[in-house]
Write a structure and sequence with these properties.
Arc Repressor Mutant, subunit A, 5 helices, single chain, 3-stranded antiparallel β-sheet, 62% helix
């Protein structure tokens, strides 16, 4: 994680990326295994999901816990920082719904 000129930019730089916000929202509900996350995000490739999870781990947003089993069991969960930013992402999600509704209404008006 690198600081930006503006704290808003720092926040956006950490959470931007293919489905990072969605990953955080899912992990706020409960810890998940990789396969569970993959099933919840069918529009993202395994390679991209792995990349996003690694970046979120490096940035201190999620934990990756590996259990010494065969095959290895890996669980993803939110760190304290991940839990702290969750309300902001939840608000962004709700705002996105408002924008999508506005877009849909305006598309209907313009046709």
């Amino acid at each position: 994680m690198k600081k930006s000129y503006c704290p808003i930019d720092t926040f956006i730089n950490v959470i931007k990326g293919k489905r990072k916000g969605t990953i955080i929202l899912h992990l706020a509900q409960s810890e998940k295994r990789y396969g569970e996350l993959s099933a919840l995000l069918p529009d993202i490739s395994d390679r991209m999901l792995s990349k996003q999870l690694k970046e979120l781990e490096v940035d201190g947003i999620i934990y990756r816990t590996v259990f010494p089993e065969i095959p290895p069991k890996v669980i993803y969960s939110l760190t304290k920082m991940g839990r702290e930013i969750h309300p902001t992402l939840k608000t962004m999600f709700k705002s996105g719904i408002l924008f999508e509704k506005w877009i849909d209404e305006n598309l209907l008006l313009n046709h």
